[in-house]
From TrEMBL:
Signal peptide coordinates: none
Lineage of source species: Bacteria, Pseudomonadati, Pseudomonadota, Alphaproteobacteria, Kordiimonadales
UniProt gene name: glgA
HAMAP family, per database record: Glycogen_synth
Classification via Pfam families: Glyco_transf_5, Glycos_transf_1
Name of protein: Glycogen synthase
Catalytic reaction annotation: [(1->4)-alpha-D-glucosyl](n) + ADP-alpha-D-glucose = [(1->4)-alpha-D-glucosyl](n+1) + ADP + H(+)
Binding site residues for ADP-alpha-D-glucose: K21
Metabolic or biological pathway, per its Swiss-Prot or TrEMBL entry: Glycan biosynthesis; glycogen biosynthesis
Entry similarity comment: Belongs to the glycosyltransferase 1 family. Bacterial/plant glycogen synthase subfamily.
Enzyme class: transferase
Residue spans crossing the bilayer: none
Functional description taken from the UniProt entry: Synthesizes alpha-1,4-glucan chains using ADP-glucose.
Length: 486
């Protein structure tokens, strides 16, 4: 593979849309490199060759064989995703030949060998970045979340010139903690296992390794960066993150505005745009029919698309269902997670037929139809690194009702009285994250919905808000530039 004259950036992630997706990480991994490539960077994505990744990859070509990668043979391939994203695939059947969720087993428990699976990804990333398996050598390595957290640690062990390293925390709550007895099998010297290294409460901390050994650490919104650098919200790493100073920054996420485009979205029953909004009403009518809700264009339709966890505030939303329905609004629910919450929302649908509909699981096409058909989307998270559903919602003219935390605070303009008068509101915020505050925000949204002229103005404002990757990608490119100039 010939060397490129452009600055070379290696992305390392465990999932990537449209090949494999369990959450927002995949959306970022699938879209950000494509936007960066538009500015002339040579960006490649290293992914584990899970069956779904191999099935979706185009034109695979074997680049190298690895005799023993943490217990078995492996091979490195180049390939291309359907989106045009350039890939490196790490094919190691003993690690990645698994169907379904790449982190959890069929019982919803962490896979017992995750430490080997993702350490191998990081180890191979370091080797690849150093030019060992191809003649493509990275100037910068950008690793994502705990699954790629050891990448910078392995690179730090290398002698001589090394690529600069960037590590992005997508959610501090998931830290990748494993027993220290695995140090040797993961090719990690004991010299790294200390308080200022990869050790976290006598365990190996994959996410901590990324923080400690990377040249720069980012997270997915400025407000979340400030929140996690505190004892209260740092989840045991607040002091470490605060000590980084300017080496820690927050860059808000974007979304792929080609994938999320109501004018061209093939999953929608009708297309529409900011200028021609009539199709949104047809999407609402179709969604009410699809989800078994009462057919009424005038009834405000609220929705939620989320993992069902306390972090996402879904317990607060479940408690608010009687208030929502009692005020004449409908609720469409799509998600899965905590079994008690799943059962609670299923019961709510049974107790309020025609007004509440619950679908357990996740369906990408359905998520598009819900975003298009609803009037308001709930995102009542107790903490939220960035959030993507509110960005998709604004793109589709569905106003977000969000907690004032993390990236939600950075991406939604509260439609308070001043914002309404200025014509700048794009949604509704509440704080603190309590039942009373959530209901008050719902009441405000309902009142605004009753003023059709004001509502149309809010919808147009939300649809005109820039949720693309253009500005975030420029911010990441600036981080790479600063590092390589040091």
């Amino acid at each position: 593979m010939p060397k490129s004259s452009a600055r070379r950036v290696l992305f390392v992630a465990s999932e990537c849309f449209p090949l494999l997706k369990t959450g927002g990480l995949a959306d970022v991994a699938g879209a950000l490199p494509l936007e960066l490539a538009k500015s002339g960077l040579d960006v490649r994505m290293l992914l584990p060759a899970f069956p779904a990744v191999k099935a979706g990859a185009k034109r695979p070509k074997k680049l190298a064989e690895i005799k023993d990668l943490f217990g078995g043979p492996a091979a490195l391939y180049s390939a291309t995703a359907a989106t045009g994203l350039k890939l490196f695939m790490l094919d190691a059947p003993h690690l990645y030949d698994i169907e379904g969720n790449p982190y959890l087993d069929s019982k919803g428990k962490d896979r017992a060998d995750n430490h080997i699976r993702y350490a191998a990804l990081s180890f191979a990333a370091a080797e690849l970045a150093m030019g060992r398996h191809t003649d493509w050598e990275a100037d910068t390595v950008h690793a994502h979340d705990w699954q790629a957290g050891l990448t910078a640690a392995y690179i730090a062990l290398e002698d001589g010139p090394r690529p600069k390293t960037v590590f992005t925390i997508h959610n501090l709550a998931f830290q990748g903690l494993f027993d220290k007895k695995h140090l040797a099998s993961l090719k990690l010297p004991r010299s790294l296992f200390h308080q200022n290294g990869i050790e976290y409460w006598d365990q190996i901390g994959f996410l901590k390794a990324g923080i400690v050994y990377s040249d720069h650490v980012t997270t997915v919104s400025p407000s979340y960066a400030a929140e996690i650098a505190t004892e209260d919200k740092g989840m045991g790493l607040g002091g470490l993150l605060a000590s980084l100073g300017p080496k820690l920054s927050g860059i808000v996420n974007g979304i792929d505005t080609d994938v999320w485009n109501p004018e061209t979205d093939p999953t929608l029953p009708a297309s529409y745009s900011r200028q021609k909004a009539a199709g949104k009403a047809k999407c609402k009518q179709a969604l009410q029919a699809e989800m078994g809700l009462k057919q009424d264009a005038k009834t405000p339709l609220f929705c939620v698309i989320s993992r069902m966890t306390d972090q996402k505030g879904l317990d607060l939303l479940l408690e608010a269902v009687p208030h929502i329905v009692g005020n004449g609004a409908q609720l469409a629910v799509l998600g899965s997670g905590d079994k008690d919450l799943e059962a609670g929302f299923m019961k709510a649908a049974k107790d309020h037929p025609g007004m509440v509909s619950t679908t357990i699981g996740y369906d990408e096409a359905m998520s598009h139809r819900i975003q298009a058909g609803a009037d308001v989307i709930f995102v009542p998270s107790r903490f939220e690194p960035c959030g993507l559903t509110q960005l998709c919602a604004m793109r589709y003219g569905t106003l977000p009702l969000v907690a004032r935390v993390g990236g939600l605070a950075d991406t939604v303009i509260d439609a308070n009285l001043a914002a309404l008068q200025a014509g700048t509101g794009t949604g509704f915020m509440f704080s603190p994250v309590t039942q009373d505050a959530l209901r008050a925000a719902f009441d405000r949204a309902l009142k605004a919905y009753g003023n059709k002229a004001a509502w149309r103005k809010l919808v147009r404002g939300a649809m005109g808000y820039d949720v693309s990757w253009q500005a975030p990608a420029a911010a990441y490119a600036a981080v790479y530039d600063a590092l390589t100039k040091d």
